[in-house]
């Protein structure tokens, strides 16, 4: 009975998913479009941030930066902040950290991925597909690194 009451108190839901910030730069246009050999090097940077909105609501922001360069010239640079307001209640400790560090970014990523792909095409560039990201593995890796750093600090 006590387990059922405890499980009933746990709530996890999406209140809102929204685009918080979006920037697109293409400093080499229109000259970049005259190049016949399109083989840019692409750099992807990904990070996630958390800020409590109130006792049961948490804003999770997934920031993705994509930079494409060819011959040391920036073809395009995108920075996107895809955010979500999540109701998270009844979770504590490691369980709460896993929801914030893995579950929520997994929810946000497809929205960010679609926005980035769409904007790159609207910028006149060929189709760009961000590959799926395993946020569970990234979260576990970050936890392991934090534990190793804590051991080294002592």
Instruction: Please state how the strands of the largest beta sheet are arranged side by side.
Output: 1-4-3-2
Share of β-strand residues: 35-45%
Number of strands: 4
Structural class: alpha+beta
As for the number of domains, it is: 1
Shape: elongated
Distance from N terminus to C terminus (CA atoms, Å) equals: 43 Å
Low-confidence stretches: none
Major beta-sheet overview: 4 strands, antiparallel
Order of helices and strands: HEEEEHH
CATH architecture descriptor: Roll
CATH topology: Bacterial Protein-export protein SecB
Q: Can you say what the CATH homologous superfamily is?
A: SecB-like
What count of helical segments does DSSP give?
A: 3
**Class, according to the CATH hierarchy?**
Alpha Beta
Q: Kindly provide the radius of gyration, computed on alpha-carbon positions and rounded to a whole number of angstroms.
A: 19 Å
Structural description of this entry:
- This protein is an alpha+beta fold and 154 residues long.
- It has a single domain (16-147), classed as Bacterial Protein-export protein SecB.
- The protein is built from three helices and four strands, in the order αββββαα.
- The protein has helices at 2-9, 93-122, 135-153; strands at residues 11-25, 41-52, 57-70, 73-89.
- Strands 1-4-3-2 form a four-stranded antiparallel beta sheet.
- A hairpin with a 2-residue loop joins strand 3 and strand 4 (73-89).
- The termini are far apart.
């Amino acid at each position: 009975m006590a387990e059922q009451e405890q499980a009933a108190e746990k709530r996890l839901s999406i209140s809102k998913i929204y685009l918080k910030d979006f920037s697109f730069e293409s400093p080499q246009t229109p000259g970049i479009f005259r190049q016949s050999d399109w083989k840019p090097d692409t750099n992807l940077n990904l990070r996630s941030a958390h800020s409590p909105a109130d006792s049961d609501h948490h804003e999770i922001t997934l920031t993705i930066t994509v930079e494409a360069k060819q011959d040391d010239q920036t073809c395009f640079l995108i920075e996107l902040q895809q955010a979500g307001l999540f109701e998270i209640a009844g979770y504590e400790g490691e369980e709460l950290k896993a929801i914030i560090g893995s579950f929520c970014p997994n929810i946000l990523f497809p929205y960010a991925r679609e926005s980035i792909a769409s904007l790159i095409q609207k910028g006149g560039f060929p189709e760009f597909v961000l590959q799926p990201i395993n946020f569970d593995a990234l979260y576990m890796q970050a936890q392991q690194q934090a534990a190793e750093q804590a051991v080294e600090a002592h």
